[in-house]
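If you are new to this repository, start here. Below is one unmodified record pulled from the training split, so you can see the exact layout before writing a loader.
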Amino acid sequence: MIYTVITAVLFLAVTAAGVIFLVLRYIPLRRGGIGISIGKKVHPAISLVMTVAGLLSLILIPSSFHTVEIGNVALVKQMGVITDVEESGIYFDFWLVRNYETYDIKVQQVEIETDAYTADAQSMDIFMVLQFQIDPTKVKEIAITYGSLDALTNRIQSVAEERTKATLSQYQAEKLIEERDKVSPRVQQVVNEEMLKKEYCVTFNSAVITDITFSDAFEAAVEAKMMAQQEKLQAQYENEKKKEQADTALYVAEQEAKALVAKAQAQANANVAVAEAEARSIMLKSVEIARMLGYVVTETEKQSLDDEGNTVTEKSYEITYDETHTGADIAEYMKYIEYLSAWDGKLPQVVAGENGFMITVPSVNNPEEKV
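And here is the target side for that same chain:
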């Protein structure tokens, strides 16, 4: 900073002296109507030196102002030796002695296009983007090790290409296509690890694979294979759908058959229930008739549980038969009762003739039967 101030003061002093000398030498001053050139009284050699110094100052002073833009730092070299690193601002240094080299400290983006091979020797073109940012505190190390930011960028690009190729070469081509969304994070991890192993004086941000293209023949083969797989999956889907439809039809048929069986079983059970009811009704009628005709009837009660756990009492009857009570009269009386249940209330028809008379009695089975 002191060197800058001293240099500026000297340049300004020499410039002022040169300008004043030129004014005095070439612009005459008039006193009393007589033009006098004070500069002509100065020795010619001094006049020449002062003139040259003034002209050089006019040329050198503007060139000694250095501007460092925002987002950059300047590496200051004095006679080829690095002396300082300046941030953004305006600086005054004699340009013949001190030189300013600017370094961009903003995020650098590098687009890479290269070719590579997969594990099964399929060629591919890789397109990727690198982003990194140099460390402003390590600009001296960058200048000493690499010489310039461009050289550092080329080195990082070479390392990124090499690590990317090595990573992608571990994948089969078809596997690489299937897991393309997982490849870019893997490449970024590998490149970042490589950046940490060696001192590149940068902050690595990202390495993104934007595209991977294969040969037309390979892509056509992959497309044909995928179409075949899709057709196979479609056929499997249709077969499974047909099987489901068949299973559904079979299930419907089984349910309908079960419904028919259940209906038939219910009808059979109903018929059995009706038959049992009729048989019990006949039995009860027989018991009543037997009691009426003087038979000995024994009644027995039996208790049991139904399906709901309720107690049910069932009665059974036993008719005692002997020589007098053979049961024939019970049967005849039952027929008479049946006849009465079928009688329509009309009296029998009597027809007289030479040989006697004929009575028409309605029959249970045939009402027109004659006796």
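Two things worth knowing about this chain: Residues 29-39, 367-371 have pLDDT under 50 and may be disordered. The CA atoms of residues 41 and 84 lie 47 Å apart.
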